[in-house]
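User: Sequence for Radical SAM core domain-containing protein below. Tokens please.
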Amino acid sequence: MVWETPYFSYAVRELPKGCQLCVRGEKLVLFTTGVCPRDCFYCPLSPWRRGDVVYANERPVKNVDDVIEEARIQEAKGAGITGGDPLARLERTVEYIRTLKENFGKDFHIHLYTTGALATEKALSKLYDAGLDEIRFHPDLFNPNSKLFKVEIENIRKAFDFDWDVGGEIPSIPGQLDRMKWYAEFLDKHGAKFLNVNELEFSEMTLKTLLDMGFQPVSDESSAIKGSLELGLEFLEWGEENTSLSYHLCTAKLKDAVQLKNRLRRMARNVARPYMEVTEEGTLRFGIAEYDDLDELYEFLVEEAEVPSEWLHINREKGRIEMPEEVAVELADAVEGDVKFFIVEEYPTWDRLEVERIPLP
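Assistant: Structure tokens for Radical SAM core domain-containing protein:
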């Protein structure tokens, strides 16, 4: 039976362990390289991640300590390793897996996504020995006559020689039901545990290509592609009747409304300063004041406006003084001149993405 999860997604049987942690915001997203042996027409990767770069969530990684720090801030219980193809930088990926296990223990659950093109027996052995718990293969399913696809399928077979959870991860592309069924039967025959299906979405990088191919958005407000969700549900119904795999249809809404929000909440409680309010969405809300001379403004606020110094924080990087929202509201009424006051909301992430700014009169 296909059942609807509390996370706006759909499943057959049980969710994979990696997904159970992910939907609760408990998985660190570890991007170990943007390098990939394939160039899929639906790949949403942004231009600045298409090179050989490393990110832990939104944090650019200079060394493995950055990864550990980000996992601690998030209170992560596991990591999902992605790319590009993480196996394109195998030694780096293996080092991160081993270091995360050493720092957070064997119960820190790590899953990894790969095309399979580089998953030689030697590579798989290194990943397994480092402590990888779950491996998810995304072969070039929609280009079955390519030499690369044949290599990927042969490599996937080798993964079943190791004692970890093996599964698949593919997009739900309208018109490709037969290829999806073929892959499900292949995985089921070899003893895989699950097959995850992702609702196809437009991204900045794929918009023109997908429109040119005839795909349409569900609505003006959504990045999801028309027909993808319906195909995914049809596929899950078929899979429940014809295979023993578990299935998870991961929707566009899950990623934004659930997974991201839950991760932000976990991070917010660890990075919020005393003057910041953590919202229901997991953002940080507080007041700011902007002025040409921050030191002069700070001195004025403390000595003339008699604002307690512990309520104020000079953020020189962003050129502002931060404070509780209610203090900014009061000061906006009382302070004359060129000082500008705002209420802002930011993500509690490394890049502190600003999602709202309200000017105070």
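The chain has two domains: 2-267, 273-359.
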